[in-house]
Design brief:
Among the domains are: 96 residues, no CATH class; 134 residues, Immunoglobulin-like (Sandwich). The chain is 38% helix and 19% strand. It contains 30 helices and 29 strands. Strand 16 and strand 17 form a beta hairpin. The longest helix is centred in the N-terminal third of the chain and has 20 residues.
């Protein structure tokens, strides 16, 4: 299939249909116009290192021989297309509506034990299938397990994302014998963290950690109050994995599962359970429930996907609070995580999502006895050992594994090759010149010079060396530096900050503005294991700003605006933003607009805000376009103009702005400047929700709750959407869930009860009748609703019943326009049919909340001597369709 045919068949928008992604590629929701179904398409650039190629196709083909299994998710097909931008793989896979296991557990807090156990056992069946075919996944985690709910209600987990898997290939040598052991740290085994050889039961450690999370909805290894991007968090998680008393934590589980998890979570590989059969035997089970139905086609939501905030403000959200860090003499000091070691070759392979090796070779720990020296760490430097003996003292910032008796190393001044004694062997260029004369293949299939240039590096810092100084090295080392910069830049752009940092730092030191900015950004937000350090960030931004790099000027403005490592200073922030804007930086133009829009350190000035937003929008800034729509939508500094607001929102939505998508939904939802069109509102809310916009998610849930806007009534799915929005911080969504829970339980409340034996209540029949109607969809344009509210007199002589109070209003109380007035009741008991008109109902209104009824009791039959007030609170969920 040609690319034009592919794009014609599978419809998606790269700006609005993104559902996930990371350094291994980007995932989009697409519509298959031939089979009339939704699919997921993963797009990843084909990467080449030397004569090796890393691609989705290779991953696809490597596991394509696996027989189908209900608990394994495969790519359906991989297409490869070439363009001026490069060669890209397009992998087609099933679209999973329920998302991954993390989201599923979070969105279904009421799963019973049997359901949770069945999920765990099915996951075990999937692992057994992989291990039967000699595949170790190495990155099992809830984010890599997708979920399907069958029509019969059964929950089916599916293992996916084999980018870090390794496979045994009978009789063949490993292509990546020095590659990083992989895995996501909270689910990684001790041997992965330490970089030790792996076995099949490495996956069984991960299973134990995941099983605990399935049963408890909690992470087994977690640290609160620290950013997960920080080195401190990684170190603490590592210590928990290596030392924490697991047995104490799992006591909350049933006894048979306690025993099973202890078998899985043995830190010593040899003591750990060896295979899935042993686990099933310990549980007294043969397998999970067998699922024979074909999978319903639904979509994955990837755990690593960034969710944007509702307010699209001037800078990325700060990942952790500022730390008091003294500026070091050497600003490039790298606080890399002690145990996790990536090589350049391993990084490139991981970035491509493909690493496979024969398990039989890796699993034999005795084979290392006669091998070359191996890397070890001492403080912040690297050296080499054989066994327990140090053969080359630690003195390198970065270093690679030995191949053919040589290793590529980097000190503070330069990069070169050493022999197994640690002696200087050759420069990169010298070795290239030597091997070019005799370009025979090396043992790994690359020519010698290719293998040498791509030796894996591991990042560490150095302030000493005993090798030739920089001036003694051939001048061609600059070419190696440029090559490192290009690779570092690429890794940075793929969000692999950990491995980008040491490759960018030499170029930053040499004065390259782009590298200086990237290093500053990594320090600014504490990325890739670097400790967040505002002083370092400011230093590097300033170096780049001296060379007129506008984006660094913008980020200095952010630091002064937010007080990141400096005293808050609006004038300084505006000065930096203005300098960057004068150089044509659209983000700074937008930030100036936000400064004047919100009055940040200056007098609020919508005219100036509009001027800067227009300049940024002219350069294609989507969020500036959204802000222009916002000004017209609300009439801030301009005449209110819904048509112009809609135009700007549409332009911004085309740029991928979730805020603009949500606001387009609001226009059609409220009929603001356009005819009421709830189906169109649903379309835009859905697009915004898929990009993580919580208000849009909640409003989309409202339509499913009532079955309005062209979608079917689906209370269960509506609650899932409310839960998702609530998890993202939407307070109204949390309130919706409480209301629905009270409706289901037929709860109503007495916020203020009687002290005099009086009573205000709903009869059982009235309560049951009303709660059975909710959530209710009303097609008539009359927006009224009637409750029969009963009372009885105790010590008081008379009463009146009202549905509102001018003096006290509750936060969760729905708004009225009017209500049926109550007479004065003097009988000992009775009821009042209290009709209420809901605000906005006649124009289309979804009302979810509580109605509060108040009874005023009096000590005389004339209603003049007040005794007390009694209040009841009734859950309410009604939708009136628009005209």
């Amino acid at each position: 299939m040609k690319q034009e045919e592919f794009l014609k068949r599978y419809e998606f928008n790269i700006r609005t249909d993104k559902v996930g992604g990371g350094s291994f590629g980007t995932v989009y929701k697409a519509y298959d116009t031939v089979l009339d179904r939704n699919v997921a398409i993963k797009i990843s650039e084909v990467k080449r290192l030397g004569n090796k190629e890393f691609s989705l196709r290779e991953e696809f083909e490597a596991i394509s021989n696996l027989p189908p299994h209900v608990n394994i998710a495969h790519y359906e097909k991989v297409f490869t297309f070439e363009s001026f931008q490069g060669v890209f793989d397009y992998a087609l896979m099933q679209y999973y509506q329920e998302g991954n296991l993390t989201e599923f557990i979070r969105n279904h807090p009421n799963l019973n034990f049997e359901q949770r156990e069945d999920i765990a056992l099915q996951l075990l069946n999937g692992i057994a299938h992989l291990h039967k075919h000699k595949v170790v996944h190495r990155d099992l985690k809830p984010g890599n397990i997708l979920v399907v709910i069958r029509k019969n209600g059964q929950i089916v987990p599916k293992i996916t994302d084999f980018g870090l898997s390794k496979q045994a290939e009978d009789g063949q040598g490993s292509r990546f014998q020095n590659s990083f052991a992989g895995g996501t740290i909270q689910y990684s085994s001790p041997e992965q963290i330490k970089g030790e050889p792996l076995k099949l039961n490495t996956d069984l450690w991960s299973f134990g950690v995941i099983a605990y999370e399935i049963f408890t909805s909690l992470k087994l290894f977690n640290v609160n109050g620290i950013s997960s991007a920080s080195i401190e968090w990684q170190n603490q998680i590592t210590q928990h994995i290596l030392k924490e008393n697991i047995e104490e934590k799992i006591k909350v589980l049933p006894k048979n599962w306690q025993v099973t998890l202890l078998l899985c979570l043995q830190r010593d590989l040899s003591n750990r359970v060896q295979n899935t059969d042993e686990i099933l035997k310990s549980l007294g089970k043969e397998s999970a429930t067998v699922v024979q139905e074909p999978a319903t086609r639904v979509t994955p939501t990837y755990e690593a996907t960034q969710v944007r905030q509702v307010d699209t403000e001037s800078a990325p959200t700060q990942v952790s609070s500022p730390k008091a860090i003294t500026k070091k003499t050497n600003p490039s000091k790298n606080h890399a995580f002690k145990y996790v070691t990536f090589g350049l070759l391993g990084v490139a392979a991981v970035a491509a999502g493909i690493i496979f090796f024969p398990l039989d070779k890796i699993e034999n720990p005795d084979e290392s006895a006669n091998e070359s020296p191996v890397l070890y760490f001492e403080k912040d430097l690297m050296g080499y050992k054989k066994g327990d003996s140090i053969v080359i003292k630690p003195k390198f910032i970065s270093a690679g594994a030995f191949t053919d008796g040589k290793a590529y190393v980097v000190d503070q001044d330069s990069s070169y090759y050493i022999n197994e004694k640690g002696d200087w062997l050759a420069s990169v260029q010298q070795l290239k010149n030597d091997t070019s004369k005799n370009d025979k293949p090396s043992s790994n299939g690359l020519t010698n010079n290719q293998a040498d240039e791509n030796q894996p590096l591991i990042n560490k810092t150095d302030n000493q060396n005993k090798i030739p100084k920089k001036e003694e090295q051939p001048s061609n080392t600059k070419n190696a530096s440029n090559s490192n910069y290009e690779l570092g830049k690429k890794l940075y752009d793929e969000n692999n900050y950990k491995d980008a940092f040491p490759l960018l730092m030499p170029s930053a030191k040499s004065g390259m503005a782009d590298a200086q900015h990237r290093v500053g950004y990594i320090y600014h937000y504490g990325l890739g294991g670097q400790v967040q350090n505002y002083s370092e960030a400011k230093y590097w931004y300033e170096q780049a700003a001296k060379q007129n790099l506008a984006v660094s000027m913008n980020n200095l403005g952010i630091m002064y605006e937010k007080g990141n490592g400096v005293v808050k200073n609006s004038n300084q922030a505006i000065a930096w933003y203005t300098k960057a804007a004068d150089l044509g930086n659209a983000l700074s133009m937008r930030n100036l607009g936000l400064t004047y829009r919100d009055g940040k350190g200056v007098e609020k000035n919508y005219s100036k805000a509009k001027e800067w937003f227009e300049k940024a929008a002219a350069k294609g800034d989507g969020e500036a376009m959204t802000n222009l729509g916002y000004l017209y939508h609300n009439g801030y500094g301009v005449d209110k103009d819904y048509t112009k607001a809609k135009t700007w929102y549409e332009k911004a939505a085309d740029k991928g702005s979730s805020w603009a998508m949500r606001n387009l939904g609001l226009l059609f939802d409220d009929g603001s400047g356009v005819p009421y069109n709830w189906a169109e509102a649903v379309k835009w809310y859905r697009k915004a929700s898929e990009k993580g916009e919580s208000m849009a998610t909640r409003r989309l849930g409202e339509f499913y709750l009532f079955g309005a806007g062209g979608v079917p009534k689906d209370v269960a799915y509506a609650k899932q959407l409310f839960q998702k929005a609530a998890n993202d911080g939407d307070q109204i969504a949390k309130e919706h869930l409480l209301v629905l829970s009270d409706i289901e339980k037929k709860n109503y409340f007495r916020p203020i009860d009687s002290q005099l034996g009086n009573s205000l209540f709903l009869t059982v029949s009235e309560l049951n009748q009303e709660m059975a109607l909710f959530p209710a969809l009303v097609e008539q344009h009359d927006n009224s609703w009637v409750f029969d509210v009963s009372y009885s007199l105790g010590k008081s002589k008379s009463a009146r019943i009202w549905p509102n109070d001018a003096d006290i209003n509750y936060e969760d109380e729905i708004s009225f326009t009017n209500y049926t007035s109550s007479p004065l009741f003097t009988q000992s008991s009775g009821s009042h049919s209290s009709g209420v008109n809901i605000k906005g109902g006649s124009y289309g209104q979804r009302t979810i909340g509580y109605i509060y009824y108040r009874a005023y009791f009096y000590n005389d039959v004339n209603g003049s001597v007040f005794d007390e007030k009694v209040v009841i609170k009734i859950p309410f969920a009604v939708c009136w369709l628009p005209r």
